[in-house]
Design brief:
The protein is of the alpha+beta class. The chain has twelve helices and ten strands. The radius of gyration is 23 Å and the shape is flat.
Length: 270
Amino acid sequence: MEKINFTEEAKNSLDKSIVKNSQNEVEYLPDGTLLSQVDIAKKYPRNLMKCLSNAMLIFEVDPSFAEICKYKKPQGKDKSGNQLYVEGASVHLARLIAQIYGNLRVDARIVYETEKKVVSEAIAWDLETNTAIRQEMHRSVFSVKNNYRFSDDMVITTSLAANAIALRNAVFSIIPRFFVDRMLQKAEEVLKSDLQDAKKFASRKLEMFNFFNKQGIEPQQIFAHIGVANENQLTSDNLILLVQIAQSIKDGDAKAKDIFKPITDQKTND
Protein backbone atom coordinates (compact mmCIF):
# COMPACT_ATOMS: atom_id res chain seq x y z
CA MET A 1 0.00 0.00 0.00
CA GLU A 2 1.41 3.39 -0.98
CA LYS A 3 0.21 6.88 -0.12
CA ILE A 4 0.50 9.37 -2.94
CA ASN A 5 0.38 13.16 -3.08
CA PHE A 6 -1.17 14.38 -6.30
CA THR A 7 -0.77 18.12 -5.75
CA GLU A 8 2.03 18.70 -8.29
CA GLU A 9 0.49 16.34 -10.82
CA ALA A 10 -2.82 18.15 -10.44
CA LYS A 11 -1.19 21.55 -10.99
CA ASN A 12 0.73 20.33 -14.03
CA SER A 13 -2.41 18.90 -15.59
CA LEU A 14 -4.05 22.31 -15.32
CA ASP A 15 -1.61 24.18 -17.60
CA LYS A 16 -3.73 23.86 -20.72
CA SER A 17 -7.05 24.15 -18.91
CA ILE A 18 -7.11 27.83 -17.89
CA VAL A 19 -9.05 30.61 -19.59
CA LYS A 20 -9.96 34.15 -18.61
CA ASN A 21 -13.48 35.52 -18.71
CA SER A 22 -14.55 39.02 -19.79
CA GLN A 23 -13.59 40.39 -16.35
CA ASN A 24 -10.08 38.94 -16.79
CA GLU A 25 -10.76 36.44 -14.01
CA VAL A 26 -9.24 32.97 -14.23
CA GLU A 27 -11.68 30.12 -14.84
CA TYR A 28 -11.19 26.40 -15.32
CA LEU A 29 -12.30 24.66 -18.43
CA PRO A 30 -14.83 21.89 -17.66
CA ASP A 31 -12.47 19.10 -18.67
CA GLY A 32 -12.31 17.24 -15.36
CA THR A 33 -8.72 18.21 -14.51
CA LEU A 34 -7.47 17.04 -11.13
CA LEU A 35 -7.01 20.43 -9.50
CA SER A 36 -10.47 21.65 -10.53
CA GLN A 37 -11.97 18.50 -9.00
CA VAL A 38 -10.15 19.19 -5.74
CA ASP A 39 -11.58 22.73 -5.72
CA ILE A 40 -15.10 21.39 -6.28
CA ALA A 41 -14.63 18.82 -3.50
CA LYS A 42 -13.53 21.54 -1.08
CA LYS A 43 -16.52 23.66 -2.04
CA TYR A 44 -19.04 20.84 -1.69
CA PRO A 45 -17.73 18.51 1.05
CA ARG A 46 -19.51 15.25 1.74
CA ASN A 47 -21.86 14.68 4.65
CA LEU A 48 -20.59 11.34 5.91
CA MET A 49 -23.75 10.28 7.74
CA LYS A 50 -25.90 11.24 4.76
CA CYS A 51 -23.64 9.14 2.53
CA LEU A 52 -24.07 6.18 4.86
CA SER A 53 -27.84 6.67 4.97
CA ASN A 54 -28.00 6.79 1.16
CA ALA A 55 -25.86 3.65 0.91
CA MET A 56 -28.20 1.80 3.29
CA LEU A 57 -31.13 2.50 0.95
CA ILE A 58 -29.78 -0.16 -1.43
CA PHE A 59 -31.12 -2.85 0.90
CA GLU A 60 -34.65 -1.43 0.62
CA VAL A 61 -34.48 -1.00 -3.14
CA ASP A 62 -32.72 -4.32 -3.79
CA PRO A 63 -32.56 -6.68 -0.77
CA SER A 64 -30.70 -9.27 -2.87
CA PHE A 65 -27.68 -6.94 -2.84
CA ALA A 66 -27.03 -8.25 0.69
CA GLU A 67 -25.88 -11.55 -0.84
CA ILE A 68 -22.92 -10.02 -2.65
CA CYS A 69 -21.63 -7.67 0.05
CA LYS A 70 -19.27 -10.10 1.71
CA TYR A 71 -16.90 -12.87 0.70
CA LYS A 72 -15.50 -15.69 2.82
CA LYS A 73 -12.83 -18.21 1.95
CA PRO A 74 -11.24 -20.99 4.06
CA GLN A 75 -7.69 -20.57 5.24
CA GLY A 76 -6.41 -23.50 7.25
CA LYS A 77 -7.61 -24.79 10.62
CA ASP A 78 -6.94 -23.93 14.23
CA LYS A 79 -5.31 -26.27 16.77
CA SER A 80 -8.68 -27.87 17.52
CA GLY A 81 -9.28 -28.66 13.87
CA ASN A 82 -11.91 -25.97 13.36
CA GLN A 83 -12.03 -24.35 9.94
CA LEU A 84 -10.67 -20.80 9.78
CA TYR A 85 -11.86 -18.24 7.24
CA VAL A 86 -10.60 -15.04 5.68
CA GLU A 87 -13.53 -12.70 5.17
CA GLY A 88 -14.16 -9.18 4.02
CA ALA A 89 -16.27 -6.73 2.06
CA SER A 90 -16.64 -7.54 -1.62
CA VAL A 91 -15.73 -5.50 -4.69
CA HIS A 92 -19.47 -4.97 -5.29
CA LEU A 93 -19.79 -3.18 -1.97
CA ALA A 94 -16.62 -1.21 -2.74
CA ARG A 95 -18.09 0.03 -6.02
CA LEU A 96 -21.40 1.00 -4.40
CA ILE A 97 -19.71 2.93 -1.60
CA ALA A 98 -17.33 4.64 -4.04
CA GLN A 99 -20.31 5.88 -6.06
CA ILE A 100 -22.19 7.18 -3.04
CA TYR A 101 -19.26 8.46 -0.95
CA GLY A 102 -18.63 11.42 -3.24
CA ASN A 103 -15.46 13.40 -4.04
CA LEU A 104 -13.61 10.15 -4.61
CA ARG A 105 -11.65 9.18 -7.73
CA VAL A 106 -11.03 5.48 -8.32
CA ASP A 107 -9.29 3.69 -11.15
CA ALA A 108 -7.78 0.27 -11.84
CA ARG A 109 -5.71 -0.99 -14.76
CA ILE A 110 -3.22 -3.66 -15.74
CA VAL A 111 0.20 -2.01 -15.50
CA TYR A 112 2.23 -4.86 -16.90
CA GLU A 113 2.02 -8.47 -17.98
CA THR A 114 4.58 -11.26 -18.21
CA GLU A 115 4.42 -14.82 -19.46
CA LYS A 116 3.35 -15.99 -16.02
CA LYS A 117 1.39 -13.17 -14.41
CA VAL A 118 -0.56 -9.96 -14.79
CA VAL A 119 -0.18 -7.04 -12.39
CA SER A 120 -3.02 -4.64 -11.70
CA GLU A 121 -2.72 -1.25 -10.07
CA ALA A 122 -5.68 0.54 -8.48
CA ILE A 123 -5.83 4.04 -7.00
CA ALA A 124 -8.43 5.55 -4.71
CA TRP A 125 -8.05 9.29 -4.13
CA ASP A 126 -10.10 11.27 -1.61
CA LEU A 127 -10.27 14.69 -3.22
CA GLU A 128 -11.29 16.41 0.03
CA THR A 129 -8.28 15.29 2.06
CA ASN A 130 -5.85 14.90 -0.86
CA THR A 131 -5.11 11.40 0.40
CA ALA A 132 -4.59 8.66 -2.17
CA ILE A 133 -3.88 4.96 -1.81
CA ARG A 134 -2.34 2.80 -4.50
CA GLN A 135 -2.74 -0.99 -4.36
CA GLU A 136 -1.23 -3.69 -6.56
CA MET A 137 -2.60 -7.15 -7.27
CA HIS A 138 -0.55 -9.93 -8.89
CA ARG A 139 -2.42 -12.82 -10.51
CA SER A 140 -0.96 -15.89 -12.18
CA VAL A 141 -1.84 -16.66 -15.81
CA PHE A 142 0.35 -19.74 -15.96
CA SER A 143 -0.39 -23.35 -14.99
CA VAL A 144 2.70 -24.74 -13.26
CA LYS A 145 1.16 -28.21 -13.11
CA ASN A 146 0.53 -28.39 -16.85
CA ASN A 147 3.33 -26.01 -17.88
CA TYR A 148 1.30 -23.73 -20.15
CA ARG A 149 0.05 -20.13 -20.26
CA PHE A 150 -3.69 -19.55 -19.99
CA SER A 151 -5.72 -18.92 -23.14
CA ASP A 152 -6.29 -15.30 -24.19
CA ASP A 153 -9.85 -15.40 -22.85
CA MET A 154 -8.67 -16.68 -19.47
CA VAL A 155 -5.94 -14.04 -19.32
CA ILE A 156 -8.60 -11.37 -19.87
CA THR A 157 -10.82 -12.92 -17.17
CA THR A 158 -7.88 -13.09 -14.76
CA SER A 159 -6.96 -9.48 -15.54
CA LEU A 160 -10.49 -8.31 -14.78
CA ALA A 161 -10.44 -10.20 -11.49
CA ALA A 162 -7.07 -8.62 -10.60
CA ASN A 163 -8.44 -5.14 -11.36
CA ALA A 164 -11.54 -5.80 -9.25
CA ILE A 165 -9.58 -7.01 -6.23
CA ALA A 166 -7.03 -4.18 -6.46
CA LEU A 167 -9.86 -1.65 -6.72
CA ARG A 168 -11.62 -3.17 -3.72
CA ASN A 169 -8.47 -2.99 -1.60
CA ALA A 170 -7.76 0.60 -2.60
CA VAL A 171 -11.31 1.82 -1.90
CA PHE A 172 -11.47 0.14 1.50
CA SER A 173 -8.10 1.67 2.40
CA ILE A 174 -9.69 5.12 2.02
CA ILE A 175 -13.25 4.63 3.32
CA PRO A 176 -13.66 4.85 7.14
CA ARG A 177 -13.93 1.39 8.69
CA PHE A 178 -17.16 2.13 10.54
CA PHE A 179 -18.85 2.92 7.21
CA VAL A 180 -17.98 -0.52 5.81
CA ASP A 181 -18.79 -2.34 9.07
CA ARG A 182 -22.25 -0.78 9.23
CA MET A 183 -22.96 -1.86 5.66
CA LEU A 184 -21.81 -5.43 6.34
CA GLN A 185 -23.85 -5.64 9.53
CA LYS A 186 -26.98 -4.47 7.70
CA ALA A 187 -26.33 -6.95 4.87
CA GLU A 188 -26.17 -9.86 7.30
CA GLU A 189 -29.37 -8.73 9.04
CA VAL A 190 -31.16 -8.60 5.69
CA LEU A 191 -29.85 -12.03 4.70
CA LYS A 192 -30.89 -13.68 7.97
CA SER A 193 -34.32 -12.09 7.85
CA ASP A 194 -34.81 -13.18 4.24
CA LEU A 195 -33.89 -16.79 5.01
CA GLN A 196 -36.49 -17.07 7.76
CA ASP A 197 -39.02 -17.61 4.97
CA ALA A 198 -39.15 -21.36 4.18
CA LYS A 199 -39.72 -20.86 0.45
CA LYS A 200 -36.86 -18.40 0.11
CA PHE A 201 -34.62 -20.70 2.14
CA ALA A 202 -35.39 -23.64 -0.16
CA SER A 203 -34.90 -21.50 -3.27
CA ARG A 204 -31.56 -20.12 -2.07
CA LYS A 205 -30.37 -23.60 -1.11
CA LEU A 206 -31.15 -24.88 -4.60
CA GLU A 207 -29.31 -21.92 -6.13
CA MET A 208 -26.22 -22.75 -4.06
CA PHE A 209 -26.25 -26.43 -5.00
CA ASN A 210 -26.64 -25.52 -8.67
CA PHE A 211 -23.80 -23.01 -8.48
CA PHE A 212 -21.38 -25.43 -6.83
CA ASN A 213 -22.43 -28.21 -9.18
CA LYS A 214 -21.29 -26.04 -12.11
CA GLN A 215 -17.96 -25.73 -10.30
CA GLY A 216 -17.69 -29.52 -10.19
CA ILE A 217 -18.56 -29.78 -6.49
CA GLU A 218 -20.89 -32.52 -5.25
CA PRO A 219 -23.38 -32.05 -2.37
CA GLN A 220 -21.43 -34.49 -0.15
CA GLN A 221 -18.35 -32.27 -0.45
CA ILE A 222 -20.42 -29.31 0.70
CA PHE A 223 -21.88 -31.21 3.64
CA ALA A 224 -18.44 -32.42 4.73
CA HIS A 225 -17.00 -28.90 4.56
CA ILE A 226 -19.67 -27.29 6.76
CA GLY A 227 -20.05 -30.30 9.06
CA VAL A 228 -23.57 -31.59 8.40
CA ALA A 229 -24.79 -35.05 7.33
CA ASN A 230 -27.27 -33.94 4.66
CA GLU A 231 -29.20 -30.97 3.32
CA ASN A 232 -31.95 -31.38 5.91
CA GLN A 233 -29.47 -30.30 8.58
CA LEU A 234 -28.56 -27.07 6.81
CA THR A 235 -29.28 -23.95 8.87
CA SER A 236 -29.59 -20.34 7.77
CA ASP A 237 -26.06 -19.71 9.11
CA ASN A 238 -24.76 -22.62 6.97
CA LEU A 239 -26.48 -21.18 3.93
CA ILE A 240 -25.13 -17.68 4.54
CA LEU A 241 -21.64 -19.22 4.77
CA LEU A 242 -22.16 -20.95 1.42
CA VAL A 243 -23.39 -17.70 -0.15
CA GLN A 244 -20.24 -15.91 1.04
CA ILE A 245 -17.94 -18.72 -0.11
CA ALA A 246 -19.68 -18.64 -3.51
CA GLN A 247 -19.05 -14.90 -3.64
CA SER A 248 -15.32 -15.39 -3.06
CA ILE A 249 -15.30 -17.79 -6.04
CA LYS A 250 -17.29 -15.45 -8.28
CA ASP A 251 -15.00 -12.53 -7.45
CA GLY A 252 -11.86 -14.52 -8.21
CA ASP A 253 -10.61 -14.62 -4.62
CA ALA A 254 -10.74 -18.42 -4.42
CA LYS A 255 -11.34 -21.58 -6.42
CA ALA A 256 -13.99 -24.15 -5.56
CA LYS A 257 -11.59 -27.09 -6.01
CA ASP A 258 -9.23 -25.54 -3.44
CA ILE A 259 -12.03 -25.15 -0.88
CA PHE A 260 -13.95 -28.42 -1.08
CA LYS A 261 -11.95 -31.63 -0.73
CA PRO A 262 -12.70 -34.53 -3.08
CA ILE A 263 -14.88 -37.28 -1.59
CA THR A 264 -12.03 -39.81 -1.89
CA ASP A 265 -9.68 -37.61 0.14
CA GLN A 266 -12.30 -37.18 2.83
CA LYS A 267 -12.79 -40.92 3.18
CA THR A 268 -9.03 -41.47 3.27
CA ASN A 269 -8.62 -38.86 6.02
CA ASP A 270 -11.38 -40.45 8.02
